[in-house]
Amino acid sequence: MHAVATVEELRTHIQAARQSGRSIGCVPTMGALHAGHISLVEAARRETDFVVVTIFVNPTQFGPHEDFTKYPRPLERDLELCRDAGVDLVFHPEVATVYPTGATTSVDVGGVTSVLEGAFRPGHFRGVATIVLKLFNMVQPDVAFFGQKDFQQQLVIKQMVRDLDVPVRVQTCPTKREADGLAMSSRNVYLSPTERQTALLLSQALQLANSLAHDAQSTPSDIEAAMRRLLESETGVRIDYAVLVDPHTLAPLERLQSPMVALIAARVGTTRLIDNLVISSADSTDLPSS
Amino acid sequence: MHAVATVEELRTHIQAARQSGRSIGCVPTMGALHAGHISLVEAARRETDFVVVTIFVNPTQFGPHEDFTKYPRPLERDLELCRDAGVDLVFHPEVATVYPTGATTSVDVGGVTSVLEGAFRPGHFRGVATIVLKLFNMVQPDVAFFGQKDFQQQLVIKQMVRDLDVPVRVQTCPTKREADGLAMSSRNVYLSPTERQTALLLSQALQLANSLAHDAQSTPSDIEAAMRRLLESETGVRIDYAVLVDPHTLAPLERLQSPMVALIAARVGTTRLIDNLVISSADSTDLPSS
Fold it and tell me: What homologous superfamily does CATH list for A186-278?
């Protein structure tokens, strides 16, 4: 495995892989890798010949009062995990490499970026879209792999790729969970033992939504209210949103449909967590086709 | 020469050229081709192996009261000119192909987009950047060729390419002029014979700026005033701007420097024309290195 920090080195390795006829898979990450990221690497290894993991804590997708400075950056451990997972190339640039002085361009995906995460984190998806497009232009992968955990993010990236004719196929992979249901996240390390227990309410609320959705008498607003009640059953949880929406447009629903997606963002103590579940009449975890 | 209207056909031809080891040159145009465009094709033929001309009158770079509907679209003549010039592939998509229903993404280059053309044509450079990035993603050229005539546009595109790490080299080619100095433009067909004569004031004002700039006693504001006086010496000219600015930042100048660029936008009758001249102490027409 090679690990490089400059675009020139990255392009040299990519070009060599390309010239030997290999297809390129890319897994963009902010590091602090966990089994969720590794499952993306495994998908990339199954579907492409040369797997690139990018590790970059992107400042432009953090708000001014968010956790950019304290976000974990265990680079050596991340490299070890990548090596063990069979990654071919890690790209871990410095901020000044990615955003040299004088850079002014950004990508506005519009549409699905204005609601939910976009409403609670102004500028977040502009930062995400811009860095992902930059990484796509640097790596020029055939396929890029994203987790369903960041549900709205993968929608935004698919919209961008479609709208800008980016020659990359975007594949979304299932959320990885701890044995007790907590969605894996690099931010879980922020949780105290008590908060770690309270955080289970998010996945439990999603499962509750799934159960209620199979009762044809339920309405979307009933289900949203039930999720909120469960989340608020313990102190120390502050809900940003808990909604049941259309999985393509994220628009509110008048009545139940299939598929739908339940999406939650909540603070447990000071740690902001997100989770989601796609709910269809057939089965409750698969992604809708897109 | 092939001429295609779908992205699928475009990509098939490009892929074949790429697989035969040829480098790709791209000349993005809005059609209504003239000798200026053909000079870009000639540059592309010198520097690359497979030359693609795109012909697309891009609605998103026109303001609501601009000339989108009346912009000339002589497709058959354009194809003939391309064939004669040795173009390999023309891509002339329909609007619905380029902007399918539901497209919401745009590119904001910031920086140099806010002044001059950006100030007089709000949204223009957002439209330009978005379509050019889309065309780059469709064609994936090694080199793209733009005219110096649209001076601010080539700056905006270079900034976008740099900021988004787009793997394309952008080359700017000199403005082509009629024998009497009028910069070639697809919009010159709008001019009546009288207006055609009045329009010479633009290139004459730029030449005046060049002469005055070689007198070390001049100040930038003297020169701008002199350009304005000349432009206003005939009725029927309305100036949007006539400035002498830094050729990289387009910022106003306190004092003369080298290089500088003189930029003019003015309406002659109802036709809006632009022209520019790079002025350096050594020579008055070359582009600054960038």
Answer: Pantoate-beta-alanine ligase, C-terminal domain (3.30.1300.10)
ipTM beyond cut 0.90: yes
Identify whether A34 is a catalytic site residue. no
Q: Is B108 on the interface with A (CB under 8 A)?
A: yes
Close Cβ partners of A147 (under 8 Å, ≥ 6 residues apart): A36, A37, A39, A40, A154, A172, A173, A174, A175, A176
Q: Which of B164, B168, B170 to mutate to test the interface with A (most CBs of A within 10 A)?
A: B164
Cα distance between residue A119 and residue A103, in whole Å = 25
Query: Cβ distance A230 to A261 under 8 Å?
Result: no
Cα–Cα distances in Å, from A287 out to A153, A227, A247, B114?
Answer: 14, 21, 9, 41
Provide the residue type at B274 as one letter: I
Burial letters for B230-242: b for 16+ Cβ neighbours within 10 Å, e otherwise?
bbeeeeebebbbb
Beta-carbon contacts of A50 under 8 Å, excluding residues fewer than 6 positions away, are A14, A17, A22, A23, A24, A25, A88, A89
- Which one-letter amino acid corresponds to residue A131? I
Domain parsing of chain A, residue ranges = 2-173, 186-278
Does the structural domain B186-279 have CATH classification 3.40.1190.10?
A: no
Written as tens digits, the pLDDT of chain B (290 aa) is: 999 999 999 999 999 999 999 999 999 999 999 999 999 999 999 999 999 999 999 999 999 999 999 999 999 999 999 999 999 999 999 999 999 999 999 999 999 999 999 999 999 999 999 999 999 999 999 999 999 999 999 999 999 999 999 999 999 999 999 999 999 999 999 999 999 999 999 999 999 999 999 998 999 999 999 999 999 999 999 999 999 999 999 999 999 999 999 999 999 999 999 999 999 986 545 455 44
CB contact (8 A) between residue A133 and residue B164 = yes
Domains A2-173 and A186-278 fall in the same CATH topology: no
Active-site pick, A37, A92, A124, A248: A37
Token couple for B154: 């080539």
Q: Does A103 touch chain B (CB under 8 A)?
A: yes
Q: Please give the model's pTM, rounded to 2 decimal places.
A: 0.96
Which position among B13, B34, B37, B124 bears the catalytic label?
B37
Nearest-CB residue to A110 (from B105, B133, B140): B105
Shortest alpha-carbon distance between residue B153 and chain A (Å): 14
Torsions phi, psi for B121 (to 5 deg): -130, 75
CATH code of the domain made up of B2-173: 3.40.50.620
Tell whether B5 lies on the interface with A, counting CB pairs under 8 A: no
* Residue A220 C-alpha from the chain's centroid: 25
Instruction: Give the containing element (helix H, strand E) for B147.
Output: strand B143-147
CA distance B36 to B4: 23
CA B77 to CA B74: how far, in whole Å? 6
Among chain A residues, the shortest Cα distance to B133 is held by: A164
